[in-house]
Every structure is written in C-alpha cells, then in structure tokens.
Amino acid sequence: MDFNLSEEQIMIRDAARDFAQAELLPGVIERDEKQQFPAEQIKKMGELGFLGMMVDPKYGGSGLDTVSYVLAMEEISKIDASASVVMSVNNSLVCWGLEHYGTEEQKQKYLIPLAKGEIIGAFCLSEPEAGSDATSQKTTAIDKGDYYLLNGTKNWITNGNNASIYLVIAQTHPEKMHKGINALIVEKGMEGFVVGPKENKLGIRGSDTHSLMFTDVKVPKGNRIGDDGFGFKFAMKTLAGGRIGIASQALGIASGAYELALKYSKERKAFGKEISKHQAIAFKLADMALQIEAARHLCIKAAWEKDQKLNYDLSGAMAKLYAADMAMQVTIEAVQIHGGYGFVKEYHVERLMRDAKITQIYEGTSEIQKIVISRSILQD
Ligand code: CAA
After folding, report:
1. pLDDT above 90 (res 249)
2. Is 208 in the pocket of ligand 1 (CB under 6 A)?
3. How far is it, in rounded angstroms, from Cα 312 to Cα 238?
4. What is the set of active-site residues?
5. Hey, which of 199, 233, 362 would you mutate to test ligand 1's pocket, going by the most ligand atoms within 8 Å of its Cβ?
6. Integer Cα distance of 67 and 210 in angstroms
7. pLDDT tens by residue, 89-147
8. Is the CB of 368 under 6 A from ligand 1?
C-alpha cells in the first residue's frame, strides 16, 4: 500500500491551490453577499481543465484520475464552495454521465464543449415533491415518436440559469415506476423551457440555484441517454460518483476553516499567551485535524476505488456522510476559536460554516447516505 501522491497528483493539487488563492479569494466575500455567480472565475477554471478533469482528452477533457479530482476539489472548496459546486456538478454528474452513457453523437455535440468548460451543465432530478424519494418523478416525458413531450417542474437546480445543457430526469411509463424513467438532454432555449427565479440561500450563495419549468418542450429522441427506461439507473449511477465530489467539497470547506482557525490561534493572545497554547483551544484543533484527516482518507479511498473500476457506492456514501457531518462540526469550532471575529464576514469562517450545511443535504442527505450504507452492509 502506498499513501504517497504521484508527481502529477501533487502538481494538480498545487495548481488548484494557486488558482484558488489568486483567482477565487479576491471578491469571495462580496460574491457571497451579492449572490453573484463567479462567471469569470468559472471560465478560467474551464480553460485550466478543471471542469472536465476526468474526461478522456479525445472528448476535450484533462484525462486525470478521480484522486486528482478530489485533491483539486478540496483546494477550490477551501476558498470558494460556490465555485466548487459548479465544478463538482459539471465533472461528476454531467460530464461523467455523458461520457459513460451518451452516444457518440451526444458526446461530440455536448460533452466536448462541457469538458472544455466552454459551457456548463446542470443535473435535474429533484422536484417539489421528489427530493430524497427520487423515484416519485412527476415530470413527464411522453413518447411522441420522433420526440418526447416534456412537462413538469424541477427544483433546487445547481447552475440553473448559467447552464447551457440540462440532464433532465422524467417519467415516460408511470405504470413501470422507476423502470419507466428516462434521462433527456435539454438545451437552454428550447421552446417551453423557462428558468425560474434564483433561490436566496443560506450558503453557497454565489452558485445559482433555480427552479426550472418545462411546458410542452419537444426533446428529440436522439437526446435520450441510454435505453428507454434507463433514466433512474442513470441518475443513481451518476450520483454515486457525484457523492465523491461533494464529500471532497465538504472536506475542503472544513480544511479551509481549520487552516484559518489554526493561524488565528497562533496570533491571538489571551491571558498572556497565544490561545493555541491553552489546552481548550489546542484540543479543539487536535479534534479538527483528526476529523479532517479521516475524511480525506475516506474521499481518496472512494476515488481510488472508482479509478480501479471497483464498486464505489458504499465508499462514496461513507465519504459523503462523514465529510459533510464533519464539515459542519469543524466549521462551527472554527467560528468558536475566532470568538467575536468569527461572527463577522471578514474572517471567512462564518461563510464556510454556512456553506458546510448544504453538503449534508444535496446529492443525497446524510439520512439517505445511511440508507445506502446500511443496505450495502446488510445485503447478503
Ligand atoms: N447504481 C445502480 N442502480 C441503483 C443504484 C446505484 N447506485 N442505487 C439504486 N439503484 C437501482 C436499484 O437497483 C433499483 O433498480 P432495480 O429495481 O432494477 O433493481 C432502482 O435503482 C431503485 O432502487 P431502490 O429500490 O433502492 O429505490 P428507493 O426508492 O428505495 O431509493 C435511494 C433509493 C438510494 C433512497 C434513492 O432514491 C436516492 O438516492 N435518493 C436521493 C436522491 C438524491 O441524491 N438527490 C440529489 C439531487 S441531485 C443534486 O443535489 C445535484 C446538485 O445540483 C448538487
């Protein structure tokens, strides 16, 4: 067993760290306050290959492994989780889904610009009444011969307004339950497709989250991903990898908050010495460092399993569950170590604490991860 990173993995991690410091840190507080999408920064991330990291270079990607992706996600998330969720959705859900299940024509038309970061994509599963219970899709895709007639509403869609391509999950054969669901590629601008207002969120306020409305949208048959009825499996398989991305996001949010708390604790003095020299603070830092390291191992293990073409449903769910809960605890402690300064925006940790919360909710809540984990360990 070798715990060392390769030279290439270290280079990717350092490039992501440098990019985050140089390009994402300036203005991150203002973007959060104004709920401003980091459009210029995302464009640069695309140019550097961060939006199609694992895609084969023949489809415009960087051809890297999932471990490199985890390392880059951690570094980007330390500074700006609103940017890293764009990166996670584009890489893990949209590009991965198209590369693995799309036709050659779909790859040529959609995957190449997505992997190059020329455009970004969105993954549309959640509905007003279908969040955790994802099989209860009310959006319908009625088979009309050459096309599907798409009707319904999707909720909480990351990249909702800025995406050009939307992977939409919809029910075609309700009598077949989840086996009647399809995944369709919908282009922005298709007639009958309307983007709803932007959600005013607690955290990741720079990312643009919208509801989407589809009214008699004609989606060509050629835009279906996989065989008729493959849509639910497509969503589950894609989300299994997405969970590694969100786990790494949670890891990065926590390690960003920890690094700030560590630095502050060595500068701030109370009762005649640095607060890091008080056991109450030193023990908090020890707990935080331990939890972060444990989460990092879980993330890298899940990524490694994915790279080895092993089943990563269990390891990805474990990584996400642990990293998300850990990020919540660590960021709360980072605010506590900063005292009053932690409660004001200039010190970043209050934003990281708000950003951490979503990692326990999206791409499967912590409770859903426990369903996935328990089913996996209890199966014969
Ligand atoms: N891989 C392949 N197939 C899978 C699978 C996987 N990982 N997980 C489930 N399936 C298959 C099952 O085998 C089953 O198929 P068969 O009937 O052919 O055997 C089918 O899917 C249905 O599975 P279940 O009976 O287990 O379904 P369920 O209703 O009990 O639900 C669940 C399972 C795990 C709870 C699932 O509903 C789930 O993951 N829910 C959470 C949804 C979610 O993560 N939403 C996030 C929204 S996307 C998002 O947040 C993106 C963003 O913008 C950031």
Report:
1. yes
2. no
3. 11
4. 363
5. 233
6. 30
7. 999 999 999 999 999 999 999 999 999 999 999 999 999 989 899 899 999 999 999 99
8. yes
